[in-house]
Amino acid sequence: MRNFYSTEEGITLTFSDIEEDSNGFEYIRFNFERENNSGFDFAEGVLPALRFDKLYGFSEDEIFDLKDYLRDNSFLIWEIAREKTEKHKGGEKTCLKPLKTF
After folding, report:
1. What is the pLDDT of residue 78?
2. By three-state DSSP, how is residue 73 classified?
3. Which residues in the chain show pLDDT less than 50?
4. Separation of alpha carbons 102 and 100, rounded Å
5. Strand, coil or helix: what is 54?
6. 32 phi and psi, to 5 degrees?
7. How far apart (Å, rounded) are the C-alpha atoms in residues 34 and 12?
8. What is the reported pLDDT for 89?
9. Diameter of the chain by CA atoms?
10. CA distances (Å), 57 to each of 13, 42, 98, in order?
11. 26: which strand partners?
12. Dihedral, CA atoms, 52, 29, 42, 101, nearest 10 degrees?
């Protein structure tokens, strides 16, 4: 994943640049990751569908909260993914809406 978005309560969100599927529709792959005792919990999926393709270690309630987080921040995620400036390559952070407490 190219773009670091945020770390809230030990959960890190990263996402890809904008990609195109075979029908020409744009999408972004995202990855939530959290360290646990044996490695990492993760939730991987695709925007704008808010579809999770791979899940491990997160509860159903946590997945619901992650979807809310994506929904609340999707505009900024798309904006950052579209950015192609030197400023973005420098890793400057953007102010985000915080994750809900789990």
Report:
1. 92
2. helix
3. 84-89, 94-95, 101-102
4. 6
5. strand
6. -100, 140
7. 6
8. 43
9. 41
10. 15, 7, 21
11. 20
12. -80
